[in-house]
Every structure is written in C-alpha cells, then in structure tokens.
Amino acid sequence: MLPVVALVGRPNVGKSTLFNALTRSRDALVADMPGVTRDRHYGVCHLGPRPFVVVDTGGLSGVEEGIDALTAQQVRLAIEEAQVLVFVVDARDGLLPQDQGILGELRRSGKPILLAVNKTDGLEEQDALGEFARFGIAAMLPLSAAHNRGTDDLIAAALPLLPPDEDESQPHVEDDSIRVAIVGRPNAGKSTLINRLLGENRLIVSDVAGTTRDPIRVPLERDGKRYTLIDTAGVRRRARIDEGVEKFSVIKTLQSMAASQVVVLMVDARENLADQDLTLIGHAVEEGRALVIAVNKWDGMDAYQREQCQRTLERKLVFVDWAKTVFISALHGSGLRELMRAVVRAHASATLELGSSDLTRTLEKAYEAYQPPLVRGHAPKLRFAHPGGSNPPTIVIHGSRTKHIAPAYRRYLENFFRKRYKMEGTPIRIDFRDGDNPFAGRRNVLTEGQQRKRQRMIREMKRRKK
C-alpha cells in the first residue's frame, strides 16, 4: 500500500489545483468559486523518488449542516486514513478564524502537518509566511499551485515524514480491473449505488440534485473480480445548465464514458426514460462502449406502475435491444448481483477475441441465408472477414460493391454475428471494404491488327450511312 497525503483547508484555497499539479493530471475540477470539490478524490504522485497517494478534499467551511456537513465528514475520513496532512491556506486572504479552527482539528489527529501557503505569486514571500508564523508549524512552504511553483519543495518535505512502504519493492502490477462508468440524470441514485456496492459511505449522498461534480474513481473487488467504479455528475438538458462548473462536470462525465469499458445508465423508475437518458445512451453507442440499463427505485412501485414502466422501456429502447435491462434498488441492495453479472457479461462480449477463419465461415452462412439487394442489376459480393479490434468488437468485411449495401443489411449482419457469438450488452461495428480493381486506371492499348480492324469497321459504318 502506498502512503497517503491529504490536502486539507478552507474552500477555494487551491487544493484541487495543487492536486492536479502533484498528480500531473486534470482529474480534479477547478473553478474560481468555493465548494466545487465535495467527495474525496484520489491520485498518485510520481514526481519524487517514491510515489504516494494524494487525496483532494472538500473545503471545511465550518457549517455543520446540509452538504457542508457531509463534505466535512468526507474530509475527516481523509484525515483519518492519511499519514501526512498538508494544510493549504490562501496567502492573499491572509489568516482567517476558519484556519484556526481547521488547524485545531488537524492537531488533534496527532499526525505530521505541513503548512502550504498558496497563491504567493506576486507577493513578498517573507511577508506572506510571517502572517502564518503564529501557527507554530515549522514546515511552512510558499507555493503557487496554479504555476506549479514550490511543489518540488512540498514533495521533498513530505517524503521524510511518510512511513516506509513494505510493498514498494514489488513490481508494478498492471490494472486489469473492469472500468465501469455510472451515468445518468441528477438524483438517479448513482452515488447510492456505489456506496451500496462498497458497503460504506464512500460518496456523498443527498436529496439535493447535483451533489457529485468530480468524476470519482473507486476500486471494488466483488465475487473474485476487480472493478473500477466511476461515479459521474448528473447530466441535465443543455438548456437547464447555467453554471460553468456544471458544464465542466458534463464534459468530465462524457470523458469518463470514453475512458470506461462498460457504461451503466441509471434510470429513475418513477420518472422513466427521459430525452436526456436517450442522449446518454447515444453517446455510449457512439463511443462503442458496452451498455447496461439499471432501472433504480424499483421497490417503491406497485404492479401496475411496474408494468407501465416495462412497456415504456421496451418501446424506447428498441434501438439498443442488445443492452441488458436490470431492475434494482440501490438503497436496499436488491438486484445488485444481477447488475454486476450483466456488467461482467457485457465486458466479456466487448473484449471477445474473434478469429478470421471463423468469422469468414459465419459470413458465408449469413450470405447464403440472405443475400444483399441488387445494385444496378448486380449483387454485392462479400468474400471474407477478419477482426478489426475490440471494445467494441469490430468486424472488417472485404468484398465488391460494398458501398451500396443498405443499412438494413448491415443490421442483419450485426444480429447474425451477435447471435452466433452470443454477444450481450455491446455494440458491434462492421467495416466494409471494397477490393481493389487491378485494371483501374489502366488504358487498353490496341495492337496493330486491332487498329486495322477498327478502321475497317469505321469505313463500313460510313458506307452504310450513305
């Protein structure tokens, strides 16, 4: 296990900016407004001689109610699991009473503390540090996280305080977990689902829509399989998005879908499928990601409501009838075993390895059963097939006149291959390629005898016209 360093401080002092600088990433959402970060966000810093885990936390505002209270609870969990605490303060705002309260809580933990005085660019460093000298912390480090200045000194100060890592000498094991992105509209139950699967309150859950803003990656091991669950921000219609932070959250959600292997779309059974849900499904299909539909809050409905919900789902999801629909209750845990099995089957189908000879034989059977419509009196010929990639499975088919193949015949081939290889929960892409004409661009040069014959024919045609 790598040692853990937690970044703690007031809202809007630059913790997320420092997190991105230490992890050399843009995973943490950064905005010039307080309260953007709420959940714990983990990353690994590889800049020093030994790596360590960095935890970005929400700002401690001193308010113990609503979202602020849930954020403070997540910060305290990060303080408990960290070996070194980095207390981030704002040099431009100076020392505030909130900083005194946070420092008292950090000292009660009994763990080593580093004071990171951020936003010192353009200021006299000694004056900025002098104001915070009353804290009595020996390790005071001026830095500018936005300009990546002072981060090396921070790493150098933190490394001696970290405990030795017993597993540090072991070789790095490549991550073979299944990356699962949980997406949906606000308040669909995405964070509740992840907390239920983990068996702990890892993510903040609230009735307030838009609680989650950053995409949070959480490892999970269940039934002998490893997963990386990605909790994403709820996506609303573009017309209802008015905050810049929410716009960036939506962009991060779409990026998380592209980086995942399986997308689980959370749908509120009481509201059924909305246009925004269908838009998210369209994004998943365009990215070629395996898809599972999770209909949440199923337990609070009577028999008539369930029947109406199922009929609506069947009608609206006809264009992705290959995706498995699972009815669950994230709050009570019903249906979660079936959900994870559907995720595993979708991942296995998306990463299935296909052989060229078997694909060609399957193509021949499909062609014999149903040939494509004629194009100008000629039928397109499909000669052989070979795999073109996975996630999604891509099949490359070579033949002639393939540019004129109708979309209906493409869907027929997709369904034929899906039934043959028992693929569930993943789209299939078929790439048609025309064979090169060896005589294209070549001019037929007549021999002397052919030229004399051509001249005789021309003279004969002129004579007949007279």
TrEMBL record:
Instruction: Mark the transmembrane ranges.
Output: none
Domain of life from the UniProt record: Bacteria
Q: Where is the EngA-type G domain?
A: 3-166, 178-351
Q: Which InterPro entries match?
A: AAA+_ATPase, G_ENGA, GTP-bd, GTPase_Der, KH_dom-like, KH_dom-like_a/b, P-loop_NTPase, Small_GTP-bd
Instruction: Please give the function described in this protein's UniProt entry.
Output: GTPase that plays an essential role in the late steps of ribosome biogenesis.
Residues holding GTP 2: 184-191, 231-235, 296-299
The biological processes this protein is annotated with in GO are: ribosome biogenesis
Q: Which HAMAP family match?
A: GTPase_Der
NCBIfam families cross-referenced by the UniProt entry: GTPase_EngA, small_GTP
In the UniProt record, the gene name given for this protein reads der
Q: Which UniProt keywords apply?
A: GTP-binding, Nucleotide-binding, Repeat, Ribosome biogenesis
Protein family (similarity comment): Belongs to the TRAFAC class TrmE-Era-EngA-EngB-Septin-like GTPase superfamily. EngA (Der) GTPase family.
Q: Which PANTHER family match?
A: GTPASE DER
Spell out the protein name for this chain: GTPase Der
Spell out the Pfam families in the cross-references.
KH_dom-like, MMR_HSR1
Organism, as annotated: Frateuria terrea
Q: How does it assemble?
A: Associates with the 50S ribosomal subunit.
Q: Which GO terms describe its molecular function?
A: GTP binding; ribosome binding
Q: Which residues bind GTP 1?
A: 9-16, 56-60, 118-121
